[in-house]
Design goal:
Elements (H helix, E strand, L loop, with lengths): L5 H64 L4 H12 L22
């Protein structure tokens, strides 16, 4: 009979259970770290996108400030009327460009 005495078998089983417990704990830890890294990279990408959006909005804000400051300037008013509404000052000619449909050739 080459069986282990009862005390040795119990300690062997306890040791095996400890190994299984620590192995499972390590696997759970690895999964949590992977999830954390994924969330961190998503947050970094979102932060960079928000930074770019902020920069674009700051440029728009600066442009709007300049427009507000120039509202009393007659040249700025004339430029705005030409650009936004299409008003042409006296002595200038307004030119329209028609869009061609695909497949039609110009004559």
């Amino acid at each position: 009979m080459s069986q282990f005495p009862l005390a040795k078998r119990v300690s062997f089983i306890k040791g095996g259970l400890l190994f299984v417990f620590f192995s499972l704990s390590f696997l759970v830890y690895l999964g949590a770290m992977q999830k954390k890294k994924k969330a961190e990279s998503e947050l970094k990408a979102r932060f960079e996108a928000l930074g770019q959006e902020k920069q674009a909005l700051l440029e728009i804000q600066e442009e709007l400030k300049l427009q507000i400051q120039s509202q009393n300037d007659p040249e700025w008013i004339q430029l705005t009327l030409m650009k936004e509404i299409g008003v042409v000052p006296e002595g200038q000619v307004k030119v329209y460009f028609e869009k061609q449909e695909e497949g039609k050739e110009t004559e």
